[in-house]
Design goal:
CATH topology: Rossmann fold
Oligomer: single chain
CATH architecture: 3-Layer(aba) Sandwich
Radius of gyration: 21 Å
Helix content: 40-55%
Shape: globular
CATH superfamily: P-loop containing nucleotide triphosphate hydrolases
Number of strands: 5
Structural class: alpha/beta
Largest sheet: 5 strands, parallel
Order of helices and strands: HEHEHHEHHEHHHEHH
Number of domains: 1
Strand order of the largest sheet: 2-3-1-4-5
Distance between the termini: 41 Å
Strand content: 5-15%
Length: 274
């Protein structure tokens, strides 16, 4: 008898522990961050050489720390091997086509990562809550999204989906910080402020999204993000673990022709193996 697929545990936002997220010192944070960034660079090099593809999806609350986490994730990477796609409202032309169309055009080429700062899940989150999609449209979208992701994973794409969760109280503090900081004020929008009044609606939509679209090949990971340091480390830990699973990330052996030419031109014995 074939093994049953592993049951995916339901994610409930109010059950995420925001208290056990303390990082003892800046030194600890920087050390752990540096090690994870170096590991991710090695993973990227493997994906580049083997022409593997990966997608990392970021969803979460306004001011949840997505941008900061993406910056720490991409800092060590070769810029030729990834693209960050910030997703805003669709254009008039995109609205006239199927909502997944604009994401098909942003899928990663061989050897690269595509990082989405918000994604196709807008159909079942903001479009659902704000009435920008009909009930029939957003309810149909769960199956459409699952099939979209299944097509990608069947084709060898690794998908990592992250939701950064902060509490309403933490969001309020971050909004106040943005309002009082001239260099961050631009981040605060009317929509951010309006959306707070629909917090419970967004919680309901988000947890339904988890239930309907967390699949064995593309599961959701919800990260407690009240602590920015903790969240950034958790993002990197989740991404590195998912991308290296079943992948040999050791350096490839040196090309034999390159080794022979280097030995002749440089006059040195070249290293053997990886």
């Amino acid at each position: 008898m074939a093994d049953k697929p592993a049951k995916i545990q339901k994610i409930r936002l109010d059950k995420l522990d925001q208290t056990d997220t303390r990082i003892d010192s800046a030194e600890e944070y920087e050390n752990r961050l540096g090690k994870l960034q170096k590991e991710l660079l090695h993973i990227q090099q493997t994906y580049w050489h083997e022409k593997r593809r990966a997608i990392v999806v970021f969803e979460g609350w306004d001011a949840g720390g997505k941008g900061g986490a993406i910056r720490r994730m991409t800092e060590p990477l070769d810029p030729r091997g990834f693209h960050v796609w910030p997703i805003a409202a669709p254009t008039a032309e995109e609205q006239s086509k199927h909502y997944l169309y604009r994401f098909w055009t942003k899928l990663p080429a061989g050897g690269t990562f595509a990082i989405f700062d918000r994604s196709w899940y807008g159909r079942v989150l903001v479009e659902r809550v704000e009435g920008l999609a009909t009930k029939e449209q957003w309810k149909r979208a769960y199956d459409e999204i699952n099939e979209f992701e299944r097509l990608l994973t069947d084709d060898g794409v690794r998908i990592v989906k992250l939701f950064l969760h902060i509490t309403p109280e933490e969001q309020l503090e971050r909004f106040r910080e943005r309002l009082n900081n001239p260099y961050k004020r631009w981040k605060l929008t009317e929509e951010d402020l309006r959306n707070r009044s629909k917090w419970d609606d967004y919680v309901k939509a988000t947890e339904t999204m988890f239930d309907k679209t967390s699949t064995p090949n593309a599961p959701w990971t919800a990260i407690p993000a009240n602590s920015k340091w903790f969240a950034r480390l958790a993002v990197l830990e989740t991404v590195t673990k998912a991308l290296k699973e079943g992948v040999d990330v050791s350096p490839p052996p040196m090309n034999g022709n390159v080794a022979r030419i280097a030995a002749k031109v440089l006059g040195v014995e070249t290293p053997q193996g990886g």
